[in-house]
Amino acid sequence: MADKRTMTTSAGAPVSDNQNSVTAGERGPVLLQDYQLIEKLAHQNRERIPERVVHAKGWGAHGVLKITGDISKYTIAKALQPGVETPMLARFSTVAGEQGAADAERDVRGFALKFYTEDGNWDLVGNNTPVFFVRDPLKFPDFIHTQKRHPRTNMRSPTAMWDFWSLSPESLHQVTILMSDRGLPTAPMFMNGYGSHTYSLWNDKGERFWVKFHFKTMQGHKHHTNAEAEQVVGKTRESYQEALYGTIEDGDFPKWKVQVQIMPEADAEKTSYNPFDLTKVWPHAEYPPIDIGVMELNRNPDNYFTEIENAAFSPSNIVPGISHSPDKMLQARIFSYADAHRYRLGTHYETIPVNQPKCPVHHYHRDGEMNTFGGIKTGNPDAFYEPNSFGGPVENPAAKEPPLKISGDADRYNHRIGNDDYSQPRALFNLFDEGEKNRLFSNIAAAMGGVPGEIIERQLAHFDKIHPDYGNGVRKALKEAHGYEANAVPVTGKTPQRAAE
Ligand code: NDP
Ligand code: HEM
């Protein structure tokens, strides 16, 4: 009876009336036996899934990675061989805002990429900045708590942010980027992406090379000032969604130049900085970026929920020829993301179409909630354990990565001792022209609204160590914005959130 146009229940039975509930008499009440009504209401109650604990607001699209350069001497990764084109998915995001947050808010932007390679999914879950706020994963939840809502006021707290940052000088590099022009891009197409961590490449000789990935916007950089962003947010909360969706619908596909920096394995012992420290970049003069290809986004999702909300990106997803590094933050992320996906999307999140590898998948995991892949993935019902005598899939030593050299005693090493937190932010500060410096100062002053003087003074002392002009510039901007004099407690003025309202 149910032809193509006949609406059905989810059990497939034809629906005779989708306008009127079953009632006892014309005026009601509704009868409990109206399963069609109950099913509709029950499904609606289950439409939302937990939002991402961070990076909840996002925008995404499908595309392709085209490799034009030749780094085959460094890696066997199939997706990085000359001429190879790999389908991919990108999701951009803000970090702190909830799913309904306005797009044009000052924040670091997530830059998450999933490459569907012949050897499985390779995910690069980076940001639009080459560094991060903390270098030890033990501090990540603390840091994120300062960015989210205060438990009592239920508002974001500039005091918490600057208290944490001023007590964590390793954050200075990222804070400087966040408060600079690049902290508020106008749309995803107008920002760079960075893998941020040091990863490694390995080749057919079993040699390992450290690597950093960069994605340079080919649309050019575009930023909002705080004042412009207020105007934008006043008109639309969805400026990024509109821009990204619109440009792809118009056939004007955004592109990024893909670059790598390569460091020979032994150099890691020689650099003046720890190359696995996520608060540091590798200076281009020492490790020049090498062009290897182009990433293009060319297809909007047909369904935002199934293709973007359901997307599960994880730094644990690597493929032969690409691997991790000793970066402590990276190890924590290898655990954290898949754990988050099992909670947010369910045990079998990798069977959701957008997360499915586009290559054969053979494993011995079985059963579990919402197992829709028909038992085990070995192709033989008798091969449900390993080893077996029934031709089930076996390991392939060709996928073995070279050993990772490590040394040292297991201990809790103080990461704040002997670490230069000032030189690289200084190199960045020195890159800024006068206009950029002034906007940096005023953005910082605006973000310090409501913060107690003692916290401001602690932060100013760090800015002074980067460059006296930095500290003094912020002092002047604080005076202009809030009439702040040294040690005045607290600074008056609107908090950034209130200003955005
Ligand atoms: P370089 O002058 O060789 O590189 C400068 C880099 O900074 C370029 O990648 C450029 O990106 C980027 N940049 C330029 N202007 C700005 C800006 N206003 N805000 C943020 N980034 C900007 O110097 P180094 O490699 O020695 O790095 C100096 C500083 O530049 C670093 O301390 C770091 O803060 C920053 N930086 C360095 C990167 C690296 O990988 N070495 C990457 C990004 C930033 P673009 O090409 O897009 O213009
Ligand atoms: C999202 C944890 C550091 C970039 C997430 C999520 C978690 C998480 C749990 C939500 C995942 C989901 O529900 O799908 C952590 C931990 C970190 C860390 C524990 C440090 C120890 C970083 C760093 C970067 C980063 C350093 C960038 C360089 C992102 C991005 C997303 C994200 C882009 C959103 C991914 C998407 O679009 O789905 N992070 N994170 N995170 N994180 Fe991190």
TrEMBL record:
Statement: the UniProt record of this protein carries the keyword Iron: yes
Species assigned in the record: Nitratireductor rhodophyticola
Domain Catalase core: 8-394
GO molecular function: catalase activity
Family: Belongs to the catalase family.
SMART domains recorded: Catalase
Polar residues bias locations: 7-23
Enzyme Commission code: 1.11.1.6
Catalysed reactions, as listed in the record: 2 H2O2 = O2 + 2 H2O
Job of this protein: Decomposes hydrogen peroxide into water and oxygen; serves to protect cells from the toxic effects of hydrogen peroxide.
Enzyme class, broadest EC rank: oxidoreductase
Names of required cofactors: heme
Keywords noted in UniProt: Heme, Hydrogen peroxide, Iron, Metal-binding, Oxidoreductase, Peroxidase
Entry protein name: catalase
Gene designation per UniProt: katA
Region (Disordered): 1-25
Gene3D superfamilies with a match to the protein in the record: Catalase core domain (2.40.180.10)
